[in-house]
Structure to design on (656 residues):
């Protein structure tokens, strides 16, 4: 029987198999940030265990960083302390850190791919569930807890049981105005938030083949939102040409050798998956969520369903919405374009194209938060900054920002925010904040109109 | 890690589905650099009103319910990978979480912190909720050796699954680091010959 992409990468990294138990999996690249690493560093220190392979770790500061005045000392004492600890831990242990203000600083899942740290065929982990993003390159990439961060520090390995395999195929051509974000929101709304639990997902079919690397990252990013530990897309020419010129990617002959290996990775024709879903691109439309988990999404022109379920009702009560109501014309107070799901240059290009020459509605506060210093520079160099500023949008400095509201970028109690991030949980963007997940195009249009509109009617 | 073999305790029913880690411990409490003190803020935004007064409607504030076991609705622990969620639950005093479904990363984090996730059938879960509603003093027994969960002094009982390796770790209080360090030579040999 043939092997899947996942099988091939996994099997190449198995160090040992315990009888009736998990396997010891070798980790090529470990990414860390300030929030989930301090306790792991401390654990090793307390047990006098050295960091085994510091050169295979890269650190960034992203979750807890301000998005204004990054050149000044961080005001919040607890945040400042956490950032300081990261700096100390990295310098003590010889770990590369792209701290606040560094030209490579950014959200871990934006900065690693754009530097070529993320490569096909790798195993990549990070103490962050959206590590699934890196699967867009045909890597096995997944989030881990802090105990596991300590395990990788100590041994560059993890003890894991091999997950089951799932394939989501989307064939056909996407309609105008339908973005990668809509594709993944559509998939999750169809299969639910735990359809992927216990599985590793491969995305296949025309839609993903024709997608840019940025789009593939958006899709793989949200694999965790359907419960899957990670998602992958087979590496192809799109992948290779993205990786090729990047700072830390292999060069010259080295690259050719690697690429020859990467070409052997796609799933064999006769491989069998434990579970399969197939969708038709023609059924996908711009999406929006109405509830408090990412599976509670509808096509933007559809009404919210009417369910009797207690959890469903609790969710709608929190959102201040009614079963059966339409999402169109819903007034919105905030728009957030950012997060590791949609803060890459392509996302800002899409938004800018729509915004150009228009004015933001007066009832909306619109925050744009680039995923990295590099994206920030691109926004400026491509002239997008001027477009946004003329339209009344506020361009901030890179970081996780309002995606999880650890810093000051919080949505106030009761306010509605159309957000390009990945989670609409209660309080995710601030206590009492109401999050509606959407694509950067829908977000940009909402900012202009001040309410939710049917974007497909506004595209020429 | 603390050892876990059996536990008999009363339980707190949290009959809500899809409880995510942002509810278990909101992000604004993740600024600490150690593992202590998270218990005080478990389910913070459900336990307290906006003005910091207790929310008496929330089950954790109901004086009739207490215990080391949390019985929760389907798909418990979805969302972020923050292990702080497990620290918050153990910090509050929970040793066992019962649900009909656990999110992957949460389950692993719980096991790495001596917090036992017990996955039961939906029917059994509903039965537990019913019993706990009727009688808050209902005692539950969790036996890890036999992999059973039962309602004390009744015939209600169910078996649960656990990875045999993890079971050994929990019973003996071992963690994965000890095991991985014992494999160091093999890991180095792997690095020397890896062919990708
Ligand atoms: S942007 Fe949001 S989801 Fe992404 S790493 Fe940061 S906090 Fe997590």
């Amino acid at each position: 029987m043939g092997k899947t992409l996942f099988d091939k990468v996994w099997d190449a990294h198995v160090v040992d198999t315990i009888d009736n138990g998990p396997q010891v999996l070798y980790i090529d690249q470990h990414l860390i940030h300030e929030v989930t690493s301090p306790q792991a560093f401390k654990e090793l220190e307390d047990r006098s265990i050295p960091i085994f392979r510091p050169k295979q770790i890269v650190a960034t500061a992203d979750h807890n960083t301000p998005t204004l005045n990054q050149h000044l000392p961080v005001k919040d004492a607890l945040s400042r302390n956490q950032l300081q600890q990261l700096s100390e831990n990295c310098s003590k242990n010889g770990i590369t850190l792209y701290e606040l203000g560094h030209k490579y600083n950014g959200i871990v899942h934006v900065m690693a791919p754009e530097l070529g740290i993320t490569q096909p065929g790798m195993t990549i982990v990070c103490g962050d569930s959206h590590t699934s993003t890196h699967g867009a390159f045909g890597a096995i990439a997944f989030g881990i807890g802090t105990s596991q961060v300590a395990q990788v520090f100590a041994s560059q390995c993890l003890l894991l049981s091999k997950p089951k395999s799932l394939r989501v195929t989307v064939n056909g051509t996407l309609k105008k105005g339908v973005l990668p974000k809509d594709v993944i929101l559509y998939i999750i709304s169809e299969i639910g938030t735990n359809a992927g639990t216990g599985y590793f997902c491969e995305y296949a079919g025309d839609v993903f083949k024709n997608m840019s690397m940025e789009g593939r990252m958006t899709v793989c990013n949200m694999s965790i939102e359907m419960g899957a530990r990670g998602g992958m897309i087979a590496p192809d020419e799109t992948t290779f040409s993205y990786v090729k010129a990047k700072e830390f990617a292999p060069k010259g002959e080295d690259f050719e050798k690697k690429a020859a290996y990467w070409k052997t990775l796609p799933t064999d024709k006769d491989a069998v998956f434990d579970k399969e879903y197939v969708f038709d691109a023609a059924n996908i439309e711009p999406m929006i969520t109405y509830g408090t988990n990412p599976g509670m999404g509808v096509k933007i022109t559809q009404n919210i369903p009417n369910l009797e379920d207690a959890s469903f009702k609790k969710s709608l009560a929190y959102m201040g919405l009614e079963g059966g109501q339409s999402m169109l014309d819903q007034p919105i107070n905030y728009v957030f374009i950012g997060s590791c799901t949609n803060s890459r240059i392509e996302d800002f290009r899409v938004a800018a194209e729509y915004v150009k020459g228009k004015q933001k509605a007066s009832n909306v506060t619109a925050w744009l938060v680039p995923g990295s210093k590099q994206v920030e520079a691109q926004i400026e160099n491509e002239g997008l900054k001027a477009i946004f500023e003329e339209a009344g949008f506020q361009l901030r400095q890179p970081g996780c920002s309002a995606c999880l509201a650890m810093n000051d970028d919080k949505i106030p109690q009761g306010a509605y925010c159309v957000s390009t991030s990945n989670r609409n949980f209660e309080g995710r963007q601030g206590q009492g904040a109401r999050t509606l997940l959407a694509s950067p195009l829908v977000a940009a249009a909402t900012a202009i109109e001040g309410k939710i509109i049917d974007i497909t009617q506004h595209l020429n | 890690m603390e050892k876990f073999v059996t536990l008999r305790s009363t339980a707190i029913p949290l009959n809500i589905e899809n409880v995510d880690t942002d509810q278990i411990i909101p992000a604004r409490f993740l600024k600490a650099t150690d593992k202590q003190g998270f218990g005080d803020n478990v389910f913070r935004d459900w336990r307290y009103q906006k003005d910091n007064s207790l929310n008496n409607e929330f089950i954790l504030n109901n004086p009739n319910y207490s215990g080391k076991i949390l019985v929760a609705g389907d798909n418990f622990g979805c969302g972020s990978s923050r292990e702080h969620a497990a620290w918050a639950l153990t910090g509050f005093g929970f040793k066992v979480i019962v649900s009909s479904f656990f999110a992957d990363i949460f389950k692993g984090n719980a096991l790495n912190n001596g917090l036992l996730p017990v996955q039961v059938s939906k029917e059994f879960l509903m039965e537990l909720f019913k019993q706990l509603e009727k009688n808050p003093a209902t005692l539950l027994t969790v036996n890890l050796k036999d992999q059973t969960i039962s309602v004390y002094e009744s015939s209600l009982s169910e078996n649960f699954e656990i990875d045999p390796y993890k079971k050994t770790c929990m019973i003996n209080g071992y963690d994965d680091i000890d095991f991985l360090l014992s494999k160091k030579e093999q890991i180095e040999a792997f690095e020397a010959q890896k062919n990708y």
About this structure: The mean pLDDT of chain B is 95. Chain B touches chain A through 55 residues (CB under 8 Å). The first strand of chain B starts at residue 6 and ends at 14. The first helix of chain B runs from residue 21 to 24.
